[in-house]
Amino acid sequence: MGSADRLERWESRSEWALAAVAVVFLAVYSIQVLTTPDRGVTNLLNGVMSLLYLVFVVDYVVRLTLAPQRARWFFRHLLDLAIVVLPFLRPLRLLRLVVLVKVLHRAGGDAIRGRVAAYTAGSAILLVYVASLAMLETERNAPDSTITNFGTAVWWSITTVTTVGYGDTYPVTGAGRVIAVLLMIGGISLIGVITATVASWIVERVSEEDTASRAATAAQIDDLRDEIRQLSVQLSDRESAREESWSSR
Amino acid sequence: MGSADRLERWESRSEWALAAVAVVFLAVYSIQVLTTPDRGVTNLLNGVMSLLYLVFVVDYVVRLTLAPQRARWFFRHLLDLAIVVLPFLRPLRLLRLVVLVKVLHRAGGDAIRGRVAAYTAGSAILLVYVASLAMLETERNAPDSTITNFGTAVWWSITTVTTVGYGDTYPVTGAGRVIAVLLMIGGISLIGVITATVASWIVERVSEEDTASRAATAAQIDDLRDEIRQLSVQLSDRESAREESWSSR
Amino acid sequence: MGSADRLERWESRSEWALAAVAVVFLAVYSIQVLTTPDRGVTNLLNGVMSLLYLVFVVDYVVRLTLAPQRARWFFRHLLDLAIVVLPFLRPLRLLRLVVLVKVLHRAGGDAIRGRVAAYTAGSAILLVYVASLAMLETERNAPDSTITNFGTAVWWSITTVTTVGYGDTYPVTGAGRVIAVLLMIGGISLIGVITATVASWIVERVSEEDTASRAATAAQIDDLRDEIRQLSVQLSDRESAREESWSSR
Amino acid sequence: MGSADRLERWESRSEWALAAVAVVFLAVYSIQVLTTPDRGVTNLLNGVMSLLYLVFVVDYVVRLTLAPQRARWFFRHLLDLAIVVLPFLRPLRLLRLVVLVKVLHRAGGDAIRGRVAAYTAGSAILLVYVASLAMLETERNAPDSTITNFGTAVWWSITTVTTVGYGDTYPVTGAGRVIAVLLMIGGISLIGVITATVASWIVERVSEEDTASRAATAAQIDDLRDEIRQLSVQLSDRESAREESWSSR
């Protein structure tokens, strides 16, 4: 069995386990940021966090080991390394939650647009929640900070993700600005996806309106082919019939 | 008759009645927010509001009773419950006005794009008006509020819905921020719809430009099928003719 | 000749004359706003403005008179009336310049997308220029105004039309806010048109990429029909040939 | 050999050389803006800059000389002249770097959408970096400036390019505002490209979903034509066979 297969198998097997780890991570992270737990709980949470951290490190090392071309894999997965190594990029470990969108597959039904809508809504909510948590943790104690409680952090996240940007709240620290930039990129993508989904719906409706401008579909072409085949069969049947009539004479 | 049918029939019958209730609700709400009526009128308006409220409650209870799978219906319509129960979400009762867009059907004519444009314009105006009313009611008496009269509320609504967001006016209360978030989501959707409508128009025009790149239409395929059928008829006619000439010999 | 034809003929004949009037209007308006002319020039400019105003009034009255169903025309052209009557909406008289986009027809070449791009660029520049003039005139002397010179007015226009909206400059008067709202609507439409044009280009490129996914074109269907016709001709030729061979025997 | 050919050949040959010059220009410009080099290094950098400047001037003069219709070329390339002559537009010399996107051709692979994504990401990063440099140089020493270090300049660039526009940082000088306007135009285009790419992907996916609504492809039409041709061949084969059987009798 090739090494590439082993990497692939590891990834498909560990996918859900890592998603579960990410969910626990999100829960612990939320508690750490949103509550002021007493010393004992804090120690417990820190312990859990260290364990979860270990899982991510182990996963990274295993994948690097299984990769057929290690140097190439290493350079292609520098972001993975950064997420594991830099405490600053800790919230990005939640990218593992991407696997959860598979659950949304069913929620959105069979239609592509339904699924895209479910993904978009799910991603938007997760994005805003995580960005608010990370921003609150980062900005809370900064001097001149405008984001000092969770409500305001969510408010800031939403004005940013929709690109409204009133400017009543904004990050003042470097780390906060990096989080904001990631959120803005997410926001632009979300707007793009919404517009695109609506556009595809309108384009389809317009083309359904009258036959004269409706696009020819593959189904129609298939029908046409059937008719041509019948014509061919018809032709060859009559030929045989005539040949028989010839020979019988 | 199935229970699902009964629910459906109730909904189609009560649709316009509830829209009328929503119109009255909008009128009373406007008077309450925009004017400072004397005590008598205030009591009258509050009475009307309570009556309208009762209509919404009755509608909710009836629909819950008629639903074939009540538990499922309950969880799928949590928003409906929230709108009825939470005084805070009162303006959302105006969602009933959605039925009025059916009137716009005729205004937009037969073309899909005309109808989408009419819906969009109608929804945008209603959205901005209601958001302004709700925002003014919520923020008017808040300390440090920047939205203290209807003109400013409308100005804030439009800078928000277009995602311009100068930041000269913005909500400062929690309730005001929830209204703002709903308005932003509406604003992004509006931009998406406008872009999508223009895109569909341009795509169509571009494809109309020259035959070489114009998409094959269903009408053309139908023409093609007709020709193949004629060919088939022609073939079978001549065969019969020949057979006759054979037998006549 | 029907009255509707007369109205149409008047409109097509007066189109360019009114555009010329609008150009003069724009020039005089620019001078009035941007310079501080002495008393004599001011009187002259006011005189010219009154004359131009008369032209718009005459055009409105003529069109109303020529309209076959005057009451219907009146209600469908309330905006035209408002533009003529309300001094406040004076800049909207420049809508007449729309006819100038016909000149851009040639600049954009034959292709639809080229023409759309030329229209968009032309409209954007005119929109920003006129909005800046109107805003400067309106806000210049308002207390607490942030827009007091033409450079700042242009800066405000562009941050608004792109929906960036920093909030360092914004209108404070009611009239200024109405101008801003019109500009925002224009800005959203511009973004929509840009996105849509790019989208149509990408969709076309993607479909050109490989035959397997390229859409069937009308030209291909035409080719197909030709082949079927040839088949039909071939069939009928041979039949005739055989019949001749029969009869000649 | 025509003069137009000579111009074209010059442009294709000098393309990469000018891109190299632009890279050096970018490096020197970055050092000048981001560091405070001592007097000796400053003189050296100024010298290099003058040399690079000479290259741009020479290129402009050569192209003007080679142009078949010099007057026409001159008016069609006024921007090129402005970039060479006005020190203010110095950063626009980096437009030469556009040729580097050819390198991205390979990074994006064969697919149109991959290439568009690679172009967009590359252009966005370059645009934000250069705008930040230019803005920092322009605003750094202005009174009341809000952009006084590179981090803040990048932060401003990104809030502008995504059209969020908090308004915590914004240009206050005329030159800074011109740079901002160029960046906004770039930002809107980027959003347009992102939306359009997503839209084209969704439209394709939706049409792939079921045969009934999938668009007829050129490949299907080709298959159809093959069948018709076979039918035609079949027809003519049998005819010949029969004719032979006739003549052999």
Give an account of the 3D structure:
Four copies of one chain form a homotetramer. Chain A has 249 residues and is mainly alpha-helical. Chain A folds into two domains: 1-97; 108-219, Helix Hairpins (Orthogonal Bundle). Chain A has nine helices and no strands. Chain A has helices at residues 3-34, 39-66, 70-76, 78-85, 101-107, 112-139, 150-161, 174-208, 218-248. In chain A, helix 1 (3-34) runs antiparallel to helix 2 (39-66). Chain A is elongated, with a radius of gyration of 28 Å. The mean pLDDT of chain A is 79. Chains A and B meet through helix 7, helix 8 and helix 9 of A and helix 6, helix 8 and helix 9 of B. Chains A, B, C, D: One of its GO terms (biological process) is action potential. Chains A, B, C, D: It holds the Pfam family Ion_trans_2. Chains A, B, C, D: It is a multi-pass membrane protein. Chains A, B, C, D: This is Voltage-gated potassium channel.
Secondary-structure map with pairings?
The structure is a homotetramer of 249-residue chains.
Chain A: H1 3-34, H2 39-66, H3 70-76, H4 78-85, H5 101-107, H6 112-139, H7 150-161, H8 174-208, H9 218-248
Helix pairs in contact in A: 1-2, 1-6, 2-4, 5-6, 6-7, 6-8
